[in-house]
UniProtKB/TrEMBL annotation:
<dbReference type="GO" id="GO:0070967">
    <property type="term" value="F:coenzyme F420 binding"/>
</dbReference>
<dbReference type="InterPro" id="IPR052019">
    <property type="entry name" value="F420H2_bilvrd_red/Heme_oxyg"/>
</dbReference>
<protein>
    <submittedName>
        <fullName>Pyridoxamine 5'-phosphate oxidase</fullName>
    </submittedName>
</protein>
<keyword id="KW-0560">Oxidoreductase</keyword>
<dbReference type="InterPro" id="IPR012349">
    <property type="entry name" value="Split_barrel_FMN-bd"/>
</dbReference>
<dbReference type="GO" id="GO:0016627">
    <property type="term" value="F:oxidoreductase activity, acting on the CH-CH group of donors"/>
</dbReference>
<dbReference type="GO" id="GO:0005829">
    <property type="term" value="C:cytosol"/>
</dbReference>
Length: 163
């Protein structure tokens, strides 16, 4: 459906809120997956934007990645601790694809090291999930109203205002 770059072009308002909240929490988001029994699972994750795509990567052999390996559908929500949502919040959803391009793994590890000092250089990532974004939404609180912005891949953003 859409890469991260395509999402930011098609949904500039939502992607800006997502980026802002993602950065404010040290890259922490909450990942929604489907367990083998069909019930939802919520897990913390630190997604990264790299080479124009959104990557959902982390410690291998965790249940969240087992879930995604079985059923690639996900939702990713910015971590919100402010009950007034004064800085907004956002989420995206879609399907992941496990990309096993070892040269890309090396570039990712190098970029991660340069950005954070966390050294995974020389490692193969399995899984290495790229997000195919199908949609997104955001919430912003304004002067006595709530703006909900909604986007679906291939479309444009639309804002629903609640008073």
């Amino acid at each position: 459906m859409a890469t991260w770059d395509e999402f930011t072009t098609g949904a500039p308002r939502i992607s800006e809120i997502f980026r802002r909240r993602h950065a404010a929490t040290g890259n922490l988001c909450m990942l929604g997956t489907l367990r083998s029994d069909g019930f939802p699972r919520i897990s913390p994750v630190e997604p990264r934007m790299f080479e124009g795509e959104l990557w959902i990567v982390g410690m291998p052999d965790t249940l969240k990645f087992t879930d995604l390996g079985r059923d690639g559908r996900f939702t990713l929500h910015t971590a919100t601790v402010d009950t007034q949502v004064s800085d907004g919040d956002a989420k995206v959803w879609g399907v992941v694809q496990n990309r096993q391009d070892l040269a890309q793994h090396e570039r990712f590890a190098q970029a991660l090291f340069e950005e954070s000092g966390f050294d995974l250089r020389g490692q193969r990532f399995d899984p290495f999930y790229a997000a195919d974004i199908h949609g997104g939404s955001s919430v912003e609180v304004g002067d006595g109203h709530l703006d909900i912005t909604i986007w679906k891949a291939g479309g444009t953003e639309r804002v629903v205002r609640k008073h």
